Amino acid sequence: MDKIVVDKLQDLAQVWDGVLDAFFLKANLRLHQIIVLGCSTSEVIGQQIGQGSSLEIAEMLLPPLLKRVQQEGLFLAVQGCEHINRALVVEEACVDHYRLEAVTVLPALHAGGAMTVKAWKDFTSPVMVEQIQGHAGIDIGDTFIGMHLRPVAIPIRIHVKELGAAHLTLAHTRPRLIGGPRAEYTL
C-alpha cells in the first residue's frame, strides 16, 4: 500500500476516534442499550453508495467502535444495505436480551456491505435480525438508519460533518412526551 493511502487512512482513523469520543459523550447511553451503525464504505472513499464496498475501511472503523461498545456494556447493531432488507448484524446476547426475531441471511460484500461482513466476522456470536429499536445511531453515508431507531430521534451535533467523503449523522433517542397542556416532564 502506498504511503499516501496509509497517511489518509491514519488521518481518517484519527477523525473517527474524535467522532466516537464526541458521540459517546453526548449520547448518554445506559447499560445494554443499542447503537445502530449504518455505514457506506463506498461513500467514505468517495464513490456512490453500493458501488465500491471497502473491507479496508470497515476494518479501520469497526474495531474501535466495537471496543467502546464492549467497554460500556452496550449492544451494537450493524445495518446492511437494501439488498438484505437493511437487516442488521447483532450479538446473540442482544437477541436474547431484547427478544428479537432472528432471520436467515449471510451478509456479503455486495449484499449487506463491507461493514456487515466485518461485523459478522468480529462479533462473538453474530445473528441477523430484520428489525430493532436502537437507542442511538451513527449513520455514515446516508444509509437511513432511522427505521431502526426508537420513535423520537434527536440529532447529536458535533464538529465533524463528514467522515472521508461520506456525510455523517449522529442521533440519540428519548421517550415520547405524552399528555396535554397540564402534563409535566423531567428530561
Task: Write a brief structural summary.
Helices cover 34% and strands 22% of the residues.
Q: Which term fits the overall shape?
A: globular
For the record, the count of structural domains works out to 1
User: Number of helical segments?
Assistant: 5
Q: Please report which band the strand proportion falls in: under 5%, 5-15%, 15-25%, 25-35%, 35-45% or over 45%.
A: 15-25%
The CATH architecture would be 3-Layer(aba) Sandwich
> What is the CATH topology classification name?
Rossmann fold
Average pLDDT, all residues: 91
Rg, rounded, reads 17 Å
- N-C termini distance: 50 Å
Give the low-confidence spans. none
The CATH first-level class comes to Alpha Beta
User: Mind telling me the CATH superfamily name?
Assistant: Hypothetical protein TT1679
Helix content: 25-40%
Coarse structural class:
alpha+beta
Question: Can you characterise this structure?
Answer:
- This protein is an alpha+beta fold and 187 residues long.
- The protein has one domain (3-174): Hypothetical protein TT1679 (Rossmann fold, 3-Layer(aba) Sandwich), CATH 3.40.50.
- Helix content is 34%, strand content 22%.
- It has five helices and nine strands; from the N terminus they run H-E-H-H-E-E-H-E-H-E-E-E-E-E.
- It has helices spanning 3-27, 41-44, 55-72, 92-98, 114-122, and strands spanning 34-39, 75-79, 88-91, 102-103, 126-129, 136-140, 152-156, 162-163, 166-174.
- Strands 1, 2, 3, 4, 5, 6, 7, 8 and 9 form a nine-stranded mixed sheet that branches.
- The longest helix is centred in the first third of the chain and has 25 residues, at 3-27.
- It is globular and about 55 Å long.
- The N and C termini lie far apart (50 Å).
